[in-house]
Design brief:
There is one protein chain. The protein is of the alpha+beta class and about 350 residues long. Among the domains are: about 1-55, Uridine Diphospho-n-acetylenolpyruvylglucosamine Reductase, domain 2, CATH 3.30.43.10; about 225-330, CO dehydrogenase flavoprotein, C-terminal domain (Enolase-like, domain 1, 2-Layer Sandwich), CATH 3.30.390. Helix content is about 30%, strand content about 20%. The protein has helices spanning about 10-20, 35-40, 75-80, 85-90, 90-95, 100-105, 110-115, 120-125, 165-170, 190-195, 275-280, 290-300, 310-330; strands spanning about 5-10, 25-30, 45-50, 60, 70, 175-180, 185-190, 210-220, 230-235, 245-255, 255-265. The protein has a five-stranded antiparallel β-sheet. β2 (about 25-30), α2 (about 35-40) and β3 form a beta-alpha-beta unit. α5 packs antiparallel against α9 and α12 (about 290-300) packs across α13. Bound molecules: flavin-adenine dinucleotide. Flavin-adenine dinucleotide binds near residues 108, 116 and 166. Flavin-adenine dinucleotide binds near residues 111 and 164.
Amino acid sequence: MNRFSYFRAESVEGALAALAADPGAKLIAGGTNLLDLMKYDVEQPSRLIDITQIEGLDTIGETTTGGIMIGALVSNTTIAYHPLISAGFPLLSSAILAGATPQLRNAATAGGNLNQRTRCYYFYDAALPCNKREPGSGCPAMEGVNRNHAILGASEQCIATHPSDMCVALAALGASVHVAGPEGQRTIAMADYHRLPNGSPERDTTLVAGEMVTGIELPAGAKRFAEHHSYLKLRDRLSYAFALVSVAASLQMDGRAIGDARLALGGVAHKPWRRTQAEEVLIGRPADDETFATAADVLLEGAHGREHNAFKIELAHRAIVRALSQAAAGTPQSQSDKRIA
Ligand SMILES: Cc1cc2nc3c(=O)[nH]c(=O)nc-3n(C[C@H](O)[C@H](O)[C@H](O)COP(=O)(O)OP(=O)(O)OC[C@H]3O[C@@H](n4cnc5c(N)ncnc54)[C@H](O)[C@@H]3O)c2cc1C
């Protein structure tokens, strides 16, 4: 681990000033990802800016438009069990509870979860080349062990996946990310927050230098999906493991037909994977396996497998159909009893 200095920010302005003063500085919140990366020499910040003592970023409350604002420092546990979230946006609670462990969720924050980095084995091994860690050095995952890698939206530079469960639900629910920076404040739609690797895989998000996340907003309209939702996560081990494939499915039912739909995938791309066309083919159709398979075909269009991950295409197809069936029936996947009904 490199030597670094430490600064405790007491306000957003203080954190932004400290970021502006040192281009090598990094924010630290729960530290559950950043500290691991520092121990592996993947991240070598010259300064850590501790944001955990900033007041006002650790609350969840209603917005004037009936949506919900989650402060960047709210822990994953608090989000999952907060009554405004578990009643209005149970898909988000379920996705969070599918991730990590209770201890990690207690420490992990909303802002840290959004900005956690890929779990690509080659990214974590500083002895090997990696275009994400060191642009232009190469990507051993292409011909190497690529079981947990991307089947959608990958580039010739990078086939890493985004690891978060929380972000898959946020993408499906149409959340937005509130950001503060040297130019003031701005809001980024969740769909635009994470990016595909293209020719610059070192950049995970559209956050620019000197900016920080202050909160995540859930739109009031997404409450209409509370009754019919499911977060289905498939992984090699039933706990303490990242998704091979996960599906966030939300439906609004009009009797036996689908009135509206939201669908996103995790574990398959450099960002949560959502295509509105896959949602449009569901609307007005009967909630049956044929309809769900059509949506899966659209969502997975262009999927490309490699030696160790081609199986994920069929796995994702089946998981989409199953998650949509669970959502339609109003029987969401339980995250404590992990048997898939
Ligand atoms: C063993 C293990 C298993 C896990 N399993 C899962 C899983 O199954 N599913 C899942 O989704 N996650 C999983 N995680 C990841 C975990 O959810 C993340 O480590 C956690 O959410 C990161 O939050 P943090 O507050 O600890 O972030 P930190 O480690 O403090 O920071 C992470 C990154 O975010 C940046 N950052 C932090 N706050 C902000 C902010 N406000 N604005 C801008 N940038 C910011 C930091 O600079 C850093 O780059 C696992 C982690 C571990 C260690």
